Amino acid sequence: MGAGRARRIAVMPGDGIGREVIAEAVRVLSAVDRRYELGLEFEEGLVGGAAIDATGHPIPEQTLALCRRSEAILLGACGGPKWDALPRERRPEQALFTLRKTFGLYANLRPATVSSPLLTASPLRREVAEGTDLLIVRELTGGLYFGAQSRTGRGQETAAVDTLPYSAAEIRRVVRKACEIARGRPRHKVTSVDKANVLETSRLWREVATEVGRETPGVTLDHMLVDNCALQLVTNPRQFDVIVTDNMFGDILSDEAAGVIGSLGLMPSASLGEQPPGLFEPVHGTAPDIAGKGIANPLAAILTGALLLRYGLDHEPAAAAIEAAVHRALQDGCRTADLAGKGPALGTAAMADAVLARLH
Ligand code: NAD
Ligand code: IPM
Ligand code: MN
Question: Which residue numbers mark the site Important for catalysis (predicted)?
Answer without folding.
Answer: 145, 195
